[in-house]
Specification:
Number of strands of chain A: 0
CATH class of the largest domain in chain A: Mainly Alpha
Helix content of chain A: over 70%
CATH superfamily of the largest domain in chain A: MetI-like
CATH topology of the largest domain in chain B: MetI-like fold
Number of helices of chain B: 15
Helix content of chain B: over 70%
Shape of chain A: globular
Distance between the termini of chain A: 26 Å
Oligomer: heterodimer
CATH superfamily of the largest domain in chain B: MetI-like
Radius of gyration of chain A: 23 Å
Structural class of chain B: mainly alpha
CATH class of the largest domain in chain B: Mainly Alpha
Number of domains of chain B: 2
Distance between the termini of chain B: 12 Å
Largest interface: A-B, 108 and 114 residues
CATH topology of the largest domain in chain A: MetI-like fold
Radius of gyration of chain B: 25 Å
Shape of chain B: globular
Strand content of chain B: under 5%
Number of helices of chain A: 13
């Protein structure tokens, strides 16, 4: 069963090479963002070049990107907080005060996350129009908060069930109320799990496009809507600047995903796989 | 793991005062449940109501409930339209092709990553990245940087092999979308299968190896049966989310040429927001919801079975 030294080296080299190949498009995008516009479209492609930050200065730190970035941050943070605010108490009840209906509720909660957004986009549009939520941060925060709620509940219930009951019983015997019990017993133990949950919720909201593009026009549009305008060969930017914007939108989610790696599987499968 | 452990917690014999507090705390889940019902079920009910209308947003007078006759007319209108079959076919073709490709690649990467080797953490980190990237950014990156016929890397690679450079997005639009979506979703499958492989007890494998099982026998008779649940979960979840693919099509082909790459979500988008036929769009919406529910029900079934096995 044990691999020999040579085998290990070959295995290592082969896998890293394959991984690099999969990652290469992202690396290429980042490299292109550091080229001049003319260097970005030469043929054959330039693998060695003098890097410049000109595109980042012109397209990322100036111009409309800042506004879209702000919208994305407001929506993402707002929706994640809303999901945690509703989801943590719900998880507490479902993990520690189970009833006969708890399992069915959990399954129903999960099924709401899996409904096709396209199936309800028309009524959402009408509701948003009639409630004056079209093209507002609030509208998307309310909606994405609900989209992330099942994820939060499923992940946090899973983490809570790993906590020994004895610890909470002890706190209760000391006369701790709900808030104290949460703060002094649960929060320290749940910390890493909650962080991973928040990061996953952040990634999904950051990347969402379908609801955003149909429910916003400009004022509250997130980055995904702006990036999609590059569909027309070059949109309003050229290749290198476009790459700079796309790279800038990728960095936060890549970092969040790399940090949350260990909990990624349980998050992606709603806790079905740990 | 919520669904699999399923053990009630909290002692069963409790003084009355504690029991009343227990009852109160149970309702901490109510705000979340009420919120979810409001945000997900109200639009769902409205979709059904809208399918009973012939509402076109450009003709405000057309709003209003038209009765059973209208929903029948709406269904007949979409079902007799030859576009419908094409759209359903595209939706299924895209989903099935991506599932197949991502399973082959995902399994390969999962096997590569299973045992420790120097650089494994780095390889894993690189491999999950395509899944983290914003789908529309991936689409832009592939369409404008990688596949560009004059300066893209694909053109360069084709030249290396002495081939004529083609613009894949134009020559084979559906295949381009399948390839790009597969690139994004391979990490998803890989992560689930990797978790499955790593949950296989080492001594099971050791025993089979001592019994003289070769790599193929081992994979076929030991690893694959163990992975069954993980494969089911990965396929069903992937299908549920692939049925919703939208951003990639929006960016890469806009559903074209013609309707060649239009799937159900994109058709709903066109019907609702470029033709403003809210009635027909909602009828399409019902089709999408029914289709998704078939897979969702299967997924819930698998979760229930998994729970029974663990109990």
């Amino acid at each position: 069963m044990k691999r020999s030294r040579t085998q290990t080296i070959l295995w290592s080299a082969g896998t890293l090479l394959a991984a690099l190949l999969m990652f290469f498009p992202i690396l290429w995008m980042a490299l292109t963002s550091l080229k001049t516009e003319s260097a970005a479209i030469t043929f054959p492609p330039q693998f060695v070049f003098t890097p410049t930050l000109e595109n980042w200065r012109a397209a990322v730190f100036n111009g409309p990107v800042i506004e879209f970035m702000q919208n994305t941050v407001i929506i993402t943070v707002g929706a994640t907080l809303l999901a945690l605010l509703l989801g943590i108490p719900a998880s507490y009840a479902m993990a520690f005060y189970r009833t006969r209906r708890t399992d069915s509720s959990m399954i129903w909660i999960m099924s709401t996350r899996m409904l096709p957004p396209a199936g309800v986009i028309v009524p959402l549009f009408i509701l948003f129009r009639d409630l004056s939520l079209l093209d507002t941060h609030l509208g998307l925060i309310l909606l994405f908060g609900a989209v992330n709620l099942p994820l939060v509940i499923w992940m946090v219930v899973g983490f809570m069930e790993d906590i020994p009951i004895a610890l909470m019983e002890a706190a209760r015997l000391d006369g701790a109320g709900l808030w104290q019990e949460f703060r002094s017993v649960l929060l320290p133990l749940l910390g890493p799990g909650l962080a991973a949950t928040a990061l996953l919720s952040f990634i999904f909201t950051w990347n969402e496009f379908f609801l955003a593009v149909n429910l916003t026009t400009r004022a509250a549009s997130p980055l995904s809507v702006y990036v999609s305008t590059f569909k027309a060969a070059q949109g309003d930017l050229f290749i290198a600047k476009m790459s700079a914007v796309a790279t800038a939108t990728a960095i936060p989610v890549l970092l969040a995903g790399w940090f949350a790696q260990r909990k990624l599987v349980s998050g992606l499968t709603m806790g079905a796989v740990k | 793991m919520a669904i699999t452990s399923g053990t009630g917690t909290g002692p069963s014999t409790q003084p009355a005062a504690r029991r009343s507090r227990r009852d109160a705390r149970r309702f901490l889940s109510s705000p979340a449940l009420i919120y979810l019902i409001l945000v997900t079920q109200v639009p769902f009910a409205l979709t059904i109501w809208l399918a009973f209308t012939n509402w076109n947003l450009l003709r405000p007078a057309s709003a209003g409930f038209n009765g059973l006759g209208q929903i029948v007319r709406n269904f007949r209108r979409i079902l007799t339209n030859p576009d419908f079959l094409l759209v359903i076919w595209n939706t299924i073709y895209l989903t099935v092709a991506v599932v197949l490709i991502t399973f082959i690649l995902g399994m390969l990467f999962a096997i590569l990553l299973e045992k420790p080797f120097p650089g494994r953490a780095l390889a894993r980190t690189l491999l999950i990245s395509p899944f983290l990237l914003m789908p529309v950014a991936s689409a832009v990156l592939w369409k404008n940087l990688m596949l560009d016929p004059s300066f893209g890397l694909s053109a360069w690679a084709m030249q290396l092999f002495g081939l004529q450079s083609v613009y894949l997005v134009q020559e084979a639009p559906m295949l381009s979308i399948i390839a790009i979506v597969s690139w994004q979703w391979t990490p998803f499958v890989m992560l689930i299968l990797l978790a499955g492989l790593q949950s296989l007890p080492a001594d099971t494998r050791e025993a089979a190896w001592l019994d003289g099982a070769g790599p193929v026998t081992m994979f076929r008779f030991i690893i694959l049966p163990h992975l069954r649940r993980f494969i089911e979960i990965a396929v069903l979840l992937e299908v549920i989310f692939l049925l919703n693919i939208f951003g990639e099509i929006f960016v890469i082909t806009s559903g074209g040429p013609g309707l060649q790459t239009t799937n159900l979500p994109y058709q709903i988008y066109l019907e609702a927001f470029s033709r403003w036929n809210l009635g027909t769009a909602s009828t399409y919406g019902i089709v999408a919801i029914v289709l998704a529910n078939l897979v969702i029900i299967a997924f819930i079934q698998v979760l229930r079975q998994k729970r029974k096995e663990m109990a």
